[in-house]
Amino acid sequence: MNRWSLRQLDVKNAFLHGDLEEEVYMRQPQGYLPAIGFASSHSDPSLFVKHLGSDIVILLLYVDDIILTGSKVALVQEVVDELSSAFDMKDMGKMKYFLGLQISYNTAGDIFVNHAKYAKDLLAKAGLSSCRSCPTPCKPYGQLLKTEGDALTDPTIYRSIVGALQYLTFTRPEISYAVNTVCQFMTTPSELHFQLVKRILRYLQGTLDHGLTFTSGAWELNAYSDADWAADISTRQSTTGFVAFLGHNPISWQSKKQNSVSRSST
């Protein structure tokens, strides 16, 4: 929204490689970031914020991968220098690839995020690298009962692929409903349930270049939601879907079966 640059860092030798034969008891240390002025976010414990007067530096930390941004490049560089003095850091420059997310930038400064490589690897894992694509991730009225079809002899591959699809919804909101549906058959998936998963994969085959574009604009928050009417044929519960936008940018979305049966549309 502010056209701040995104910088990526990596902590070298973050993991202990080796087999431990002894029992090891550990207590998590308080951490280094609070010592240099960062405070953890209440909404995301991996997000750290540092205020310097009217300026701000934001740091996102996942194990040994770090994203840094801020209102001034000089302040971001100061944080990089401080981190490098305490840890063996690798400065990877402008962020381009982070935890499976591919990031590219256009001339206007917009950021495009997608999962193309991740999706290709998932298709290969499922043996569908050369499959024909289909136009939608699911059929409009193709619901199945949990007991329909012959149970898979080994449900491991089903669970593995569906779990990977959940991560893919981070850049593909349009598959959220279809993925939420196949997640409901994790306990005893059948061949028919697996066909639903394959349809999602065939849809991805034809939309590998799809993703999200983040751009600047008015700081307006808008949210949209809807729900079906007791459409789950197994439980008669409703499914809610929502998406929230900050400006033109989707920042939160979900498709989720409601916890109880609604008796009113209010």
From TrEMBL:
It comes from Prunus dulcis (Almond). It comes from the Eukaryota. InterPro entries: DNA/RNA_pol_sf (IPR043502), RVT_2 (IPR013103). Residues 36-138 form the Reverse transcriptase Ty1/copia-type domain. SUPFAM superfamilies: DNA/RNA polymerases. It holds the Pfam family RVT_2. This is Reverse transcriptase Ty1/copia-type domain-containing protein.
